Structure formats: C-alpha cells, structure tokens
Amino acid sequence: MTDLAYLVDVSPGTGTLPPRAWPPGSDTARLSLNGSWRFRLTPHAGADTDFAADGYDASAWGELRVPGHWVLQGHGAPAYTNVLYPFPVDPPFVPTENPTGDHLRVFDLPPDWPAGGEAVLRFDGVESCARVWLNGTELGEFKGSRLPHEFAVAPLLRERGNVLAVRVHQWSSGSYLEDQDQWWLPGIFRDVTLLHRPEGAVRDHFVHASYDHESGEGTLRVDCEPAGRVLVPELGIDTATGEGVTVPVEPWSAEQPRLYEGELVTAGERVRLRVGFRTVRVEDGLIKANGRALLFRGVNRHEFHPETGRALDPETMREDVLLMKRHNINAVRTSHYPPHPVFLDLCDELGLWVIDECDLETHGFHAVDWRGNPVADPRWTPALLDRAARMVERDKNHPSVVIWSLGNECGTGEGLTAMAAWIRERDPSRPIHYEGDLSCKDTDFYSRMYADHAEVAAIGRGEEQPLPDAESDARRRAMPFLQCEYAHAMGNGPGGLAEYQELFETYPRLQGGFVWEWIDHGLAHPEYGYAYGGDFGEELHDGNFVCDGLLFPDRTPSPGLLDFKSVIQPVRMDGDGRDGVVRVRNLYDFADLSHLEFTWSYEKDGVTVREGVLDVPAVPAGESAEVRLPAPPRRDPDAETQWTLRARLAKETAWAERGHVVAWAQLPVEGGMQLPDPGGAAPVREGGLITLGAGTFDARTGTLLAVGGVPVNGFGLDVWRAPTDNDNGMSWATGSSVAARWRALGLDRMQHRVDAVESAPDALTVRTRVAPAASDLALRTTYRWISNGIRLALDVLVEPEGDWTVPLPRLGVRLGLPVAYDRVSWFGAGPGEAYPDTGAAAMLGVWSADVAGLQTPYVRPQENGARADARWLELTDGQRCFKVAGAGFSFTARPWSTADLDAAQHRPDLVAGDTLWLHLDARRQGIGSESCGPGVLPEHQLKVGDQRHGFSFQFTVREGDA
Ligand code: IPT
C-alpha cells in the first residue's frame, strides 16, 4: 500500500506550482478542458494506475461531466453530515472503502496554440484529493478541495492526443480539514484549464489600491513578477509596476462599486485589472471602509445547486449576487471555503463586502473532545499554511474581499495562529476573522454565532461576560463585534430578525451579521422532490439540517428572504399617518438618497384611492429628513385608511430595474369600523339538528355542520400546528424542544368533550372541555353562536385549567370546507406568510391567491403559509363565497390536515383530499430560530397561564361571482 502514502500525508501536495493571483482576464491562450470525460469508479483507493499510461483503452468506461460530482451523475451517492465525520476519527487515516474516481480526457491543442513558453494545467477545485498524470507522466498530487492547484506541463504536451488522467479519492487526510456542514460530494467540481504562459508572462501580481477619504485620492501600486507597466486610461495612469501613483478617484464600496478598468502589461502578457480603491481598517473599535463604519447586512453562502451540487455555472453565481443585491444584502461570508473565483469578480462588479473564508473546518473533533485536532497539532501546520496561502494569493486583488477568515469551527490551536501570522505578513491591508477562539488572540473581531438577543445587546453595551485573562479581555473589549452566523433560516423562519437588526442599529460596536444561510441544499430527487440527509441511505446523517437557507433549492426566495429584505432596508420611513409628517432616515453607509425616488399611496380598506410622488431631499448617509405627506382625502370614519410609502430605484442599476422597491413603510391613519355582531334569530331544533339563522348544528354535540348551506366539518378549537424545524430545535434552556414538550403533553391529540348544548332565545351556547388523554390540563371552551339569518357570529371563550407551563402552538378554530373553495382573497397582511415574529415583508392590503399558492414549499413539510392580521377572508368555489370576518385574525387554508402535514417528510407526501382545512387563529406562537439559536422571544410566545382568552368570527355565505 506504499503508493497510497500520499492519501494520508498531512503535508501540502507535491509537484504543484506556488499559488498566485487569479486574473479576471488575460490575452494569453487557454484551453478549457471542461466537458465530457471518461470515468470509472472503484470502491477503494488502491486500484492499478495503468489507466494513466499512454494508450490505455478506456472505451468501456462511462462518461462524466466535468466540472461535476460523480455522486450526482449516477455513480455512488451523496451523503450529508453536519458535524460528524462519516468515518472513524483517526487522523490522518481514512477508510479502506474510499470511493475513487478515475477521470480521463484526451485532447488536442488548438491549431493556433502558440509555440514556446510554458504551459500550466490548472484545477480550480477537486474534492478531496487528486493525483494527476499527463501523457503517462505523473505530475503530482494535491489536497485542498476548494483551492486552486497548478502544474507546469509544457515539456509533456504534444499537438494531438494528449491524455490527461486524474485519480480523485473521496477521502484523504484533507477530509479531516473539510468537515463543513454540507453534502460530501467528491469530484472535479470546478474548471480544468490549460493555460499558455508565454516567456515574460505574469507569474503573480498584487494590486494595492487604497483610498484616502480625507484627500479623496486613491493610491495604486501593482507589484508584479516580472516587472511591467500598469495602465488605467480613465485615470491617466501609465506607470511602472512597483511604483505608487496617487490621483483623485471615486472610491469603491459595496454600495457604489466603482471599478476602474486597467491593464497590466509585461513582456509576455496583458492582464485585465479591475481596480477598486478602498481602505479597510479596524480603528476606534470599529471596522471602517474609507473612513466610515460599516453595517453588514450579510448572508453565509455555500456554493450549491440542486442538480450540480457545488459545481456552479457563472449564470448561477450571477443570479446569487443579483438576488442578494435585490434583497438589500450588502455582505457575504463565503462559508466555509473560498468560492469559485468568478463569484468574487461578480462581488467586485456589483458590490458586496466579502469575508473570504479559508477551506478549513475540523468540527468533528468536537465529538472526541478535540483530541487530535489538526489545528492544534504542528504536523498539520504546513497544510494549514498552504490553504491560507492558496486563498490569499488567489483572491488578494479583489476589492470586494475586505476580511480574511481563517476557517470555521476548528476549535483552537497554534495552526490558526500560524495562519493569521502568515496572512498579516503577506497582506496587512485586511483584518482577520475567526469565530471559534473566544480569546480572539489571532483576530481583529469579536465574532460569535447564534448569540441570543440579550447577549448581543450586552456585547453592544460592552457588558459581555469577561474573559478570565485580563489582557485578552481588554483586547476583545476594544474589538468590533460581528455575528458571523445568526438567524438560522431552517424551514419556517427565522423569527426574531427585526429585534436583532434593532440592536445592530442601536449599538455602534455591533457591526451586523450574516444570516445562516443563503440556500437550502436540497438535492433534486425523482421521488422526494428535494432530498436531504438520510434520503440516500447514509449510515450517519443529520436529516434536513442541510436545508436551512433563505432560498429554496431552486433559488426561489423563501418568506425568510423577503422578511430579511424588509428588516435590513437601508431607508426607514416612520411617522404619524394622521399629522402627515414622515421622518426619512438614510441608513446607507455611503450613498445619499439621490438614487431613489419616493412614492406615496393612500389606501381605503386596503385599496389605493390616490397616489403620488413624495419629494425627499438627497439626505446624506447616516442622516435623516422630515417630509410632509399631502393632505389626506376627506375622512371616512367607516373605512380603514393608511399611507403606503415606497423608495424605488430612480434609475436602472446593474442589479435591478428602475422602480425596484428598496424600502417601504405603511402609516395607519384611521382604524375603520368593526361589523357589529348580528343577532335576532332564535335556535330551532328539528330532529337531530339545530338551525340558528345561517348556521346548522348537530343538536347532540353542538358542532357546526353548515353555514348558509355550505357544509362544514371538523369544526372546533384548534391548538396544534405541524412543528416547524425551529419548534423541533433543542432549547438551550430546557434541554428539549418545544415540539417535544407539545407532543408529550398531547397537544396533537386533544379530545373535545361536549358538556352542554344550550339553546336560548337569541343564542346557541356549546360548552366543551378540550384536553389530552392522560393529563388533567384542559381548556374549557365555550362557543356562543348568534345569527341574523345571513351572518353567523361566533364568540369563543377559553378558560385554562391546571398549570400550563408550555406555550401553545396556536389558539383558534378549525373547520373543513369542500375542497372546491380554493380561491381566496383577504384584507390583511400579504401577499406572503407572517407569524408573530416574522412577516416583515407582509403589507396590509387586499390580496388574492389560490389555495395552492398559499402553501410555502418548505423542503421538509411543516407549519407554513399563515396570512396574518386579516379583517376578512373570502373563499369561493366560483359560485358561492364563504366569508369570514374578525378582528385581525390569521388563517391557513390547505387541502390536507395538520396531521397530514405533520406526518409528511417530503413535499410529494402531501396529497390534496376533498376537504379544505381552514384554520382561523386568534393568537399564535412565534417562530424563533431554535433549530440553531434562540427560541421565540417572550413577547412572541403564546402563553396560556391562567388568563381567559376570547375571540370571535363572523361567517357569511353569498351567491354570485367571487
Ligand atoms: C454552525 C456552523 O458553522 C455552520 O456550518 C452550520 O453548521 C450551522 O452551525 C448550523 O446550520 S456550528 C453550530 C455548532 C452552531
């Protein structure tokens, strides 16, 4: 097995060239070797290497798309674990069962391939380890999956029939350093390219472009080997490399990503330069760019595509950046490895602050008390330094990259210190981030993940828990604070975003955060829709914890992303709708408001009756102005009235159309009138039925059976919801999940006992006791019905019995209608879902949808789709309308029951039945983000306590068009 020693060798690879800067463009010849390759999979690592020999006949092999992961192309299967290594923790050794993919590609040089010079074979990403041969000669091997590796190959090249052979192993010592929370996806997943390197071509170049905000000047110096000239025509720069030039410039920022096109010219090559002038530094305890403190409205981005895994095409990368920009996101942490270099080009061009993170995570050592952790073992330090260098050298010329991150969840150790020291030496222009070491000894930030609101507030005030070592404590206290991960976006949620943002905007030390995470890693699957952990029969897995993004796998924004966009909007408009004075606050870090145009509309019962343009001055960043709304139209005491204000792009930008809404606000004017409860009709008993005006009831049980002739079934108090991923999250405080406590209590199997059905001349009263088996806790529930013959009004009184210590999922009523009532309109918050601590994107208005459109397609089915603050709701089958009115209720409407939703594991498990289940809630439990983080804040919990709860609804049915 000696020839397998490289697999478990912990030092950097052999035969590769030193790392260098990625050029966004060059005039030298290049040949893409992406495309269809011959492929063979063997279940272990030691197979004969004869396939690499010249003349090997691979015609019996299959084909594979490169870049790509073989497990997503019909060979073997993907596997998901979060923290656990899916192999024994015995570094640096790997299992004998080590899926190994042999890749072969035969290529000719293009006829115009230049003679002479050097040639470089470049791999932008191979997981986890590759051994490479060209024309039968072994070039070397490398690890470091999401980092580039190059080999010099000129002497081996021939005009025709070059044979490139690459053996890729799923597991290597490098796997111990790549324990990120994601699918294990082996393969050549980024580009393979042959680059001509003429005599005198750029070996490496380093663009230093700083900005002095006091003088308004930028200084450019490009270091290059070999020396050459630097041209930036727009700035009149034509200078030698290595020489600094200072000229007046417009600075680069994520808000105003001003790039200057230039060229670096050496004897052998012209390299495109895209120069962004900016200076980033931590000073006065704040991270500043160009002299101004930043507020990161960030996300963590893994590279993911539901069909191709981490092999992303440029269109997908662009789509990610566009979606971020359109949702007010201004920063991205490249969790947890350097992304494809094109992504960073796009961040330069479109404007995002980037924390570039090294390809390093050893989280699985947590399971063994960090014994043997590579970052604490000096034998691994060269490998760690190699990773740091490959990241910094490749990405050092991107203005968007403002912070280097050493890696994620590696515990602590001297390897990290060595990386930080090397990076500071090589690139003192950028601060360093790492979250996992509370002493912050190697970093410029105090960074945390998932700290709850109270702790973040304490840190904001400088009142954090002190470190035992006074010196470290003092150093950390002087640091700016980041939440490198927060607001875990798994399933329905995250709740509590607005409360975090308020803290970030209150305390200067809190410079924002990065939501975990950008996209659900659900893999397209013929049976499951989107697959998650366990769906491929993995021995160990972490289920749907891999689906915790703001985008669904197909990149449709989830309600969480829409909420985030509203919560982080860079302009706020508040005031009193009655006096018409609006305070407009500019929360940008750099831009004034001149790129926005503001509009108002005046709405009556959710319908716009007038609209116009609001004159807002070009308020500078960080400042505010008061503006006056026009005089409102004549008052109408019966109607609910409000202003809706919008800030839109005044001109098309590189990332959105003119008119794109950046920010909005609604200011209520008048409250409107509640429908009086109708009365008058007397209950009439006939056979087994009681009729009360528009309502028909079961005389024995008092259950509602029909309204206005529309059959109703399953009517009753409802307290259950299909637990969300956040409901299922383990609470730090109680050691169990709220959903587990709900189930233990039996909230999913409440029994309804009828104690009395009482007819009075003007009302029908039904007294019940709603309680789970095996418990003496109960909700005494009294339904009081009245009707005027057309409207049926319900009053519900809930009186708890016993000591309720667990919040309820919901409190409302449920009823089943014929499934044909599938078109819905309502006056309330919309168009999307909203819960007590989510729904910042929902606006008050009149909305309509069909029932299918009300469902939010969370990858693992769970409570979803509730529309909040409804004043009325209508459902129609096209002939008749079933109408509900109430005081700010929320509703869900689904063609399956809560039990079906609760039982479903994947979306295709949900099949429409013949009942439309309508849930009308007076109150609901919030969402929180306890799937990884704090639970629901106290003010958003549905506490039962000993108080009585009352709520009411009116039901009407009318004929005619909907
Ligand atoms: C944190 C990880 O950094 C991230 O990769 C992801 O796993 C996230 O959690 C949860 O989805 S680590 C955790 C111990 C807080």
UniProtKB/TrEMBL annotation:
One of its GO terms (biological process) is lactose catabolic process. Residues 691-954 form the Beta galactosidase small chain/ domain. Its EC number is 3.2.1.23. Coiled coil: none annotated. It is an enzyme of class 3 (hydrolase). Transmembrane segments: none annotated. GO terms for cellular component: beta-galactosidase complex. It comes from the Bacteria. Keywords: Glycosidase, Hydrolase. GO terms for molecular function: beta-galactosidase activity; carbohydrate binding. SUPFAM superfamilies: (Trans)glycosidases, beta-Galactosidase/glucuronidase domain, Galactose mutarotase-like, Galactose-binding domain-like. InterPro entries: B-gal_small/dom_5, Bact_Beta-galactosidase, Beta-gal/glucu_dom_sf, Gal_mutarotase_sf_dom, Galactose-bd-like_sf, GH, GH-type_carb-bd, Glyco_hydro_2. It catalyses: Hydrolysis of terminal non-reducing beta-D-galactose residues in beta-D-galactosides. Belongs to the glycosyl hydrolase 2 family. This is Beta-galactosidase.
